[in-house]
Specification:
Number of domains: 2
CATH architecture of the largest domain: Alpha-Beta Barrel
Structural class: alpha/beta
Strand content: 15-25%
Shape: globular
Order of helices and strands: EHEHEHEHHEHEHHEEHEEEHEHEHHEEHH
Strand order of the largest sheet: 7-8-6-5-4-3-2-1-9
Distance between the termini: 30 Å
CATH superfamily of the largest domain: Aldolase class I
Bound molecules: iron/sulfur cluster
Helix content: 40-55%
CATH topology of the largest domain: TIM Barrel
Length: about 375
């Protein structure tokens, strides 16, 4: 199932932990949106097998800084340049942008799924993260979105922050469960090198992040959400009533996708490419008919390892036949290495799929990297 990702590289302010590409000045917004439309035209032949596009994902940055007209222009460009049968159009939005008026305007677009960056229902967390919204907006946006017909809602939360006690984390989860939201993405706070948070911690102006707190809150989350009927269908993603995210699930299953906009990544099954993470150079380059992207051709081992890594993070696991299709030789090595994981109760093998157990999920990334094929 092929998909298109659109990166909107603008934010109102910089969240302290964030290492995505964005600018806080909207100065070049019009030119950048035109460049995104032009890049979509330039990439109309990206999918060699002329795949049908089933999902579109607006991420960022902050897509909710766009007007409905701007969104429609981008979606119309997709319709004009690709074969489409859109099942899911996801739009990342921040709580402070989701006013009633804005939600009403979004009803006139193809968006049928909102992914809201709530992160926490406590002001002490939101202030520490330097988020632009407060706890009232965090509640209000969910109520508004459901009221104005956006039933397919995902909410992002962050755990493991030094301001979030275990009791607050319980409350965040309970509030979300009670809200009626059927998809939750929850990420453990990590300190990335080039972020304000890293500088604040190094200068002693912020408390350091304790990884044991993150591990405890991960376990609390699994217990609470499973009790409330959510499936942990990917390490960081939980869904009720099978409301799995189609776009991200295709990505985890190795499907092709085209990423458009500064810093966006693409994958066509053999090659991975990525656009420059600089708005000004991106615009100039596209205006001069040049794609500002670099690419690398993946080796067979890279493709194999990626299938293992993304597959093991999901509840469907990694399929042995798919692995053999990539390389029988590498599969035999994988098969030998996985035995101790099964004996130790970290992994099980069901219907040709290797699937991590609850115990294994706590160490998903480490297990995947131990199984990697080294060239
Ligand atoms: S709104 Fe999102 S993309 Fe923008 S700075 Fe905050 S976390 Fe990063």
């Amino acid at each position: 199932m092929a998909g298109i990702y659109i990166h909107i590289p603008f934010c109102k302010q910089a969240c302290h932990y964030c290492n995505f590409h964005f600018a806080t000045s909207l100065h070049h917004k019009d030119r950048l949106l035109l460049a995104i439309q032009k890049e979509l035209e330039m990439q109309s032949d990206y999918f060699e097998d002329n795949s049908i596009i089933k999902t579109v994902y607006f991420g960022g940055g902050t897509p909710s800084l766009l007007t409905a007209d701007e969104i429609n222009r981008i979606i119309d460009t997709i319709y004009r340049n690709f074969r489409t049968e859109l099942l899911e159009v996801t739009f990342e939005a921040n709580p402070d942008d989701l006013t009633k008026e804005y939600l009403i305007s979004l009803q006139d677009t193809a968006i049928n799924r909102l992914s809201i960056g709530v992160q926490s229902f406590f002001d002490v967390d939101l202030k520490w993260m330097n988020r632009a919204h407060n706890h009232i907006q965090a509640f209000q946006c969910i109520e508004n979105a459901l009221h104005f017909g956006f039933k397919d809602l995902s909410v992002d939360l962050i755990y493991g922050s030094p301001t979030t006690t275990n009791e607050m984390w319980y409350q965040n989860l309970r509030k979300l469960i009670e809200s009626g939201v059927e998809h939750i993405s929850a990420y453990c706070l990590t300190v990335e090198e080039k972020t304000p948070l890293n500088k604040l911690i190094k200068s002693g102006k912020s408390k350091p992040v304790d990884s044991t707190l993150g591990a405890t809150q991960f376990e609390i989350m699994i217990e609470e959400l499973s009790f409330a009927g959510f499936e942990q269908y990917e390490i960081s993603n939980f869904a009720k009533n099978k409301k799995y995210a189609l776009h991200n699930t295709s990505y985890w299953q190795g499907a092709q996708y085209l990423g458009v906009g500064p810093s966006a990544h693409s994958f066509n099954g053999r090659q991975r490419s990525w656009n420059i993470s600089n708005n000004q150079i991106y615009i100039q380059s596209i205006e001069e008919d040049e794609l500002p992207r670099q690419s690398e051709t993946l080796s067979v081992a890279d493709i194999f390892n990626e299938l293992v890594m993304t597959g093991l993070r999901t509840m469907w696991g990694v399929n042995s036949e798919k692995l053999k299709e990539v390389s029988k030789l590498y599969f035999d090595e994988f098969d030998r290495n996985k035995s101790s994981l099964i004996e130790n109760g970290m992994m099980r093998f069901t219907d040709n799929n290797y699937i991590l157990t609850s115990k294994g999920k706590l160490f998903a990334d480490k297990i995947a990297s131990d199984l990697f094929i080294l060239e």
